[in-house]
Amino acid sequence: MNLVLVLGVALLLLIVGTLLGRYYAPDRRPLMRAAEEGKAYAKGLVELLEGDPDGAIDEITSALKKNAKTVEAYFALGTLFRNRGEYERAVRVHQAILVRRDVDKKTRLRVHQQLALDFKAAGFPRRAVKALEWIVTQDKKRVDTFRELAALYEETAQWERAAGAHKRIARLTGEKGGEHARIQAHLLAQLAGELVDAGKLAEARKQIRRALAANAESVHTLHVFARYQEKRGDHAAAAKLWERCLRLRPNLAAFFAPRLENALFELGRLEQLERILTELVRQHAGNAHLRLAYARFDARRNPERALAELTSLLAEAPGLLPARREAARLVLERNDPGEIRRAFEDMVGLLERADRGYRCEACSHTQQDLFWRCTSCGAWGSVGVQWGRRRGEASDGETSRGAAA
Ligand SMILES: [Zn+2]
Fold first, then answer.
1. What pLDDT was estimated at residue 210?
2. Residue 397: its pLDDT value, please?
3. pLDDT at position 1, please?
4. What's the 365 CA to ligand 1 centre distance in angstroms?
């Protein structure tokens, strides 16, 4: 609605400008024509404000036929088409401006901005990228355009370009290190990871170096680096890197500890894991993820001790599902019917608490009791069941949502 108002005001100014500009013309004919155009624009504007975009488009189109010089009308028309989902026509209207010889650089930049919006809305991010890239070749200081470009590069998995855009933004805004460097490292690590997968190790190494230069503590990069070393057969280097990952992010022990373990196993130095985990558990007293990782490791040597540790861990953190699973596995291995029964009863109790029953199809909010108005997003009739949703129910939620919106 805001956009409609802005457009409306823009058109109104246009009409006033056109009429004023021609008022002093000695010949009466241009004045008459301007008045007629103004009438068409005004009618288009009124129809637009009254919610008749079809009529507005017709009026403005007919005004354009009489005077093709008014660039603003093209912009207005392009926006109208885009808002109505007629992307092809929006693109054609905007491109029509570029064909003309009398447009200045500022207008050209504006057209490309609009084209980027058209392509983005139409679902052609790569063509939107092309339009935005043209803008930054003309004006290298547009932070906003670089931001849009960075987002589109990410969307289209062009990691290196996205990293370049972030670097440029950091330079333009004068931000030192911080957020942009952190994201740059992620983007380059993402690229390096894909290169490792593809077996392009030399290229991967180059990107890893760049990622570490942006952020030496990037766990994402260190993990990709470890995978790279492993692929090269350097288990010692891989182990060192995964150890760093584990120390930097002890909460991700469930992910890093098994990788570290594999690398140390290859080296025949499994006892190092014992030392590292014991030290980390002591350092981060009570960290459930580290304790779980240790119990998992310990279970292979001493299942009794591991089960005791898991039981005490679960007493403190009953919702820690991976610990529950590990404990259940150990209980099953021991094959004591009484213990198995107790573990099973525990599990049923846990499932009861985990099952929230109903879910909003609009925002995924879950709730124990049935609801008609979602307490989270306010949608009416969006309720579905949390588990085992059937197709018919989903499409039902769809229609009621459409009606609400
Ligand atoms: Zn909701």
1. 94
2. 43
3. 46
4. 5
Instruction: List the 383-385 sheet strands across, edge first.
Output: 366-367, 358-360, 383-385
pLDDT digits (tens, 9 = 90+) for 187-228: 999 999 999 999 999 999 999 999 999 999 999 999 999 999
Q: How far is the CA of 351 from the centre of ligand 1 (A)?
A: 23
The CA 321 to ligand 1 mean position distance, Å, reads: 26
Distance in angstroms (rounded) separating the CA atoms of residues 72 and 77: 9
Ligand 1 centroid distance, CA of 400 (Å): 12
- CA 392 to centroid of ligand 1, rounded, Å: 19
Query: Residue 366 Cα, ligand 1 centroid: separation in angstroms?
Result: 8
269-277, long-range: CB within 8 Å, 24+ apart, which pairs? 269/239, 272/239, 273/297, 276/243, 276/246
- 348 Cα–ligand 1 center, Å: 28
Distance 389 CA to ligand 1 centre (A): 16
Residue 172 host element (H or E): helix 159-173
Q: 377 C-alpha vs ligand 1 centroid, how far in Å?
A: 4
Structure tokens, 372 = 């008609």
Q: What DSSP designation does 69 have?
A: T
pLDDT the model gives residue 24: 47
Q: For the whole model, what pTM was predicted?
A: 0.69
Neighbouring C-beta atoms of residue 364, cutoff 10 Å: 12
CB proximity list for 370: less than 8 A, separation 6 or greater: 357, 358, 383
CA distances from 374 to 29, 359, 367, 402 (A): 62, 9, 9, 15
CA–centroid distance, residue 381 to ligand 1 (Å): 9
The pLDDT score that the predictor gives to residue 346 is: 82
What distance in angstroms lies between residue 319's CA and the mean position of ligand 1's atoms?
Answer: 25
Please give the pLDDT value at position 65. 67
> 229 alpha carbon to ligand 1 midpoint, in Å?
46
Query: Which residues of the chain have a pLDDT value below 70?
Result: 1-51, 53, 63-69, 176-177, 388-405
359, HSE (Cβ side, Cα atoms, 13 Å): 15
**pLDDT of amino acid 8:** 62
